[in-house]
Amino acid sequence: MRVPFLDLQAQYLGLREEILEALDRLGQRAEFTLGPEVEAFEQEFARFCGLRYAVAVNSGTSALHLALLAAGVGPGDEVVTTPFTFFATVEAILYTGAWPVFADLDPQTGNLDPAAVERVLTARTRALLPVHLYGRPANMTALADLARRHGLVLIEDACQAHGAAWDGQPVGSFGLAAAFSFYPTKNLSACGEGGAVVTNHAEIAERIRELRNHGQRERYRHETVGFNYRMEAFQAAILRIKLRWLPQWNEARYQLASLYRHRLTGTRVELPVDDPRARVVYHVFAIRVEERDRVRAELTARGVETAVYYPRPLHLEPACRPLGYGPGSFPEAERLAAQVLCLPLYPEMTREQAEYVAEAVREIVGQR
Q1: What is the C-alpha to C-alpha distance for residues 230 and 237, in angstroms, rounded to an integer?
Q2: Which of 58, 97, 85 is nearest to 197 (CA)?
Q3: What are the DSSP calls for 225-283, one per residue?
Q4: Are 238 and 257 in a shared domain?
Q5: Which of 24, 34, 40, 62 is deepest in the core (most CB within 10 A)?
Q6: Does residue 150 have a pLDDT over 80?
Q7: Are residues 180 and 280 in the same domain?
Q8: What whole-number percentage of the chain has pLDDT above 70?
Q9: Residue 220 dihedral angles phi and psi, to the nearest 5°
């Protein structure tokens, strides 16, 4: 049996008629960038997140960048974040002229360890930027308390966590603002790039609307130097279609993850640990295993596609050398990078496929 890591074609084929109808509708109206379709998606996504405002942009990276800028982060500031995430998180900090500062991970969840965060705070720390890694919420009780006690801006990188919640509260609603990505691999995905900033603060939403559109509040009146970060109307139309399915898709992911947990319990696999306060949406199902590359190669030989998110922590990326970190700086992040292996998981995946993957993993790694 062949099991792909992700099957984007299956999702498209299930929605093909609606997507083509939306493209034709917008083409006939000649509505291509921003406009009513984007505004409608913003309203619907804000409601989904339990917040007052959503501002749609062209990528999750842009969303992170604008959220930081709107919060006033800039040169001379330090922003504390995780060394184990996609590079866009640290990129967005550097775009503002601020300085990224890393803190190590909670060894169970792979998210930021609040105690480690507190140890790296300085007089220059301006903001905390936790990431909800793999769709599994960070400890927002502790991180929000930390931000309040130290007078810090809290911005959430929720790019992998559409629909997740912490202690009954949706992710994205704990800080000043949060960023989401709609990259094709995400739980809620565009047919291309897309992103959004969500917030309960009218002034933050207005500032981001201005910045995404060349600094314009009205056409040809540029209040500031902004960016071309606008969302295309067609992507908004696709996201509106898919948003209706997202709760059902997230539940399908949860059921597949539960199957993996059941079948892999007792093996020489370290399973992800979910805090009971978290509602997890399983952007990926990431196990940890010794001899990861050997296990991955053997799964490939059996027709099972896997992925490694991420093979190198950010502090060891060549582009991050100026930050001054080196091997051994963040042991938990380095251990995770050496051991993590992401198994196939997507809403259209069948139970038979998941059973096949689990059995293959069991046979390759063995029992404890």
Answers
A1: 14
A2: 58
A3: ---B-BPBHHHHHHHHHHHTTHHHHHHHHHHHHHHHHHHHTTBS-BPPPPPTTEE---S
A4: no
A5: 62
A6: yes
A7: no
A8: 100
A9: 65, 20
Using the 3D structure, point to which of 216, 243, 270 is the last residue of a domain: 243
Is 286:296 a contact under the CB 8 Å cutoff? Answer: no
Which of residues 333 and 35 earns the better pLDDT score? 333
Structural domain contains residue 209: yes
Give SS3 for 194: coil
Q: Each residue of 151-196: pLDDT tens digit?
A: 999 999 999 999 999 999 999 999 999 999 999 999 999 999 999 9
Q: What pLDDT is recorded for position 29?
A: 87
Name the token pair of 80.
């504390």
Q: What is the mean pLDDT of the chain?
A: 95
pLDDT given at position 33: 85
Residue 198 forms beta bridges with which residues?
54, 178
Would you state the structure tokens that stand for residue 277, as one six-digit string? Answer: 């306060």
Residues 78 and 203 reside in one and the same domain: yes
Cβ neighbours of 70 (radius 10 Å): 25
- Average pLDDT (203-222) is 91
The answer to whether residues 253 and 216 belong to one domain is no
Burial of 326 (0-12, 13-18, 19+ CB in 10 A): exposed
DSSP, residue by residue, 80-93: EE-SSS-THHHHHH
DSSP 122: -
DSSP code at position 321: G
Can you tell me whether residue 120 is helix, strand or coil? Answer: coil
